[in-house]
Protein: Hydroxymethylpyrimidine/phosphomethylpyrimidine kinase
Amino acid sequence: MSKVASALTIAGTDPTGGAGIQADLKSFQEREVYGMSVVTSVVAQNTFGVNGVHHLPVSFIEQQLHAVFQDIEPDAVKTGMIATIEMMELVASVLKGKSTHYVIDPVMVAKSGDPLMEESSRKVIRDTLVPLASLVTPNVPEAEILVDFEISSTDDAKKAARTIVEELGAGAAVVKGGHLTGEAVDVLYDKSGYHYFKSERTNTKHTHGTGCTFSAVITAELAKGKSMADAVATGKAFITDAIKYTLGVGKGNGPTNHWGHRLQGLPNLGGEKVE
Ligand SMILES: Nc1ncnc2c1ncn2[C@@H]1O[C@H](COP(=O)(O)OP(=O)(O)OP(=O)(O)O)[C@@H](O)[C@H]1O
Ligand SMILES: Cc1ncc(COP(=O)(O)O)c(N)n1
Structure:
């Protein structure tokens, strides 16, 4: 019997299921990868915003990581919300020297504007975790913090992606264009050069958890042995449909539709296309 690919997410929670660990596990499942999760912070949030954050003790995060790695070696790992320097150092110590694919979604601030990473940790992620990553997936504000310059165009995003690889030491970087205007263009830079992933911009407020889902799908594809460019292409196609076929769940900025990719041509299965 061939072994199913497995992926581990190390991240914070969203009890309403649209972002964080919950979105990651749904994405792994949709891509037919066995999903595992280690919780860093329990977040009381919904589609309106964040009401409270409870960081787990670092020793308990370590115990969870030990439980996973003692038993099931994941084919790929992704980190999302890693709020404190101590948590970053722990994750770095566990992943250092491992050949497992490692995707960092450097979650800093939720779409609602609520902080998910301590201010003091924002630069530290550059030195502790970024050099260990196969791929870093910042949005524009996160990339600006990592590279220390302003990003207001796809050209700036190109420069940022290259800087994250050549100066900060990541294997690859994709700077997402969700926060820019015009078509939604994501720029990947890896050892083979630049790759562009473009889609129409859907006019919707229901984009809670887009970054989590995008990076989780990429992680799942890497776990299955896909190339970096193919994995990002699948992530982009998946998130485009997940945004396009809105679910109408939640009273605020709703979650994306993890079944969206199944709905192409079948718009009555539970998602409404945003026109
Ligand atoms: N309105 C939109 N229409 C189409 N694609 C979009 C839209 N907004 C974002 N995207 C795409 O969604 C993915 C995630 O990008 P985004 O910049 O929103 O990430 P993010 O800010 O980290 O997300 P989040 O913080 O909500 O998890 C990218 O592939 C981006 O191009
Ligand atoms: C635990 C956790 N991780 C990541 C996000 C980012 O998602 P968004 O920016 O869409 O709120 C979030 N809200 N919560």
Notes: The chain has one domain: 6-273. Residues 6-273 form a domain with the UDP-N-acetylmuramoyl-L-alanine:D-glutamate ligase fold (CATH 3.40.1190.20). Residues 19, 111, 139, 176-179, 184, 186, 199, 201-202, 204, 207, 209-212, 214, 236, 239-240, 243 surround adenosine-5'-triphosphate (ligand 1) (CB under 6 Å).
